[in-house]
UniProtKB/TrEMBL annotation:
Annotated Gene3D superfamilies: 1.20.1250.10
GO biological process, one term: positive regulation of myeloid cell differentiation
GO cellular component, one term: extracellular region
UniProt lineage: Eukaryota, Metazoa, Chordata, Craniata, Vertebrata
GO MF term set: cytokine activity; granulocyte colony-stimulating factor receptor binding; growth factor activity
Name of the protein described by the UniProt record: MGF factor
Signal sequence coordinates: 1-19
UniProt-listed InterPro entries: 4_helix_cytokine-like_core, GCSF/MGF, IL-6/GCSF/MGF, IL6/GCSF/MGF_CS
Keyword terms, alphabetized: Disulfide bond, Glycoprotein, Growth factor, Secreted, Signal
Location within or outside the cell: Secreted
UniProt record similarity statement: Belongs to the IL-6 superfamily.
Length: 197
């Protein structure tokens, strides 16, 4: 029965998170399937973010991060933390929660990019839909494993970044995408780390 499996996984993961090796989980086919599917999903999202980065480069001539670092200091651009997903401090429960919180932040931030690139609305909307799906996949998996989940209310989203000029808006969008790409790389490594346990 599914309930028994979830309970067993919950116990195994609890033990794993509290000092026991996570090897018991590595044999679970549902969990491995979840990881494989969402590694693919994360790869797709990274590709879409890269496509948006190319649009920003081609359309706005903003391509080189080093050249823009001085402007960055004046910008209010979120960088979602993922320190719980690094190998040294890795904890599946907090890592999954941080991935979901970060996806929520970047989901909102992409709205500011959409305003800047109205001709690429479909790409931004596809990206936001994929992010929402990835977040709900992770939430579902956490629930299946009996991990604590946080459900974010949709109405009071994080405030969107505000920019004092059009140029700042453009550079801010560049950094939102650059930060998001780094965030996705870390999330991808964390999921891959779980497949190798």
């Amino acid at each position: 029965p599914a309930g028994g499996l979830a309970l067993l996984l919950g116990v195994l993961l609890w033990r794993a998170l509290h000092g026991a090796p996570l090897t018991e989980l590595s044999g679970d086919q549902d969990f491995q399937l979840f990881l494989q599917r969402n590694l693919e999903f994360t790869r797709k999202i990274r590709g879409d973010v890269a496509a948006l980065q190319r649009v920003v480069c081609d359309t706005l001539q903003l391509c080189n991060e080093d050249e823009l670092l001085l402007v960055r200091q004046d910008l209010d651009v979120a960088q979602a933390p993922l320190e719980q997903c690094h190998k040294r401090t890795f904890q599946a429960e907090t890592c999954f929660s941080q991935i979901r919180a970060g996806l929520r932040i970047y989901h909102g931030s992409l709205t500011t990019i959409q305003a800047l690139l109205p001709g690429h609305t479909r790409l931004v909307e596809t990206l936001q839909l994929d992010m929402a799906n990835l977040s709900s996949n992770i939430q579902q998996q956490m629930e299946d494993l009996g991990l604590a989940t946080v459900t974010y209310p949709t109405e009071n989203q994080d405030p969107l970044p505000t920019f004092s000029s059009n140029f700042h808006h453009q550079v801010g969008s560049f950094f939102i995408l650059a930060n998001f790409q780094r965030f996705l790389e870390t999330a991808y490594r964390a999921l891959r780390h779980l497949t190798n346990l």
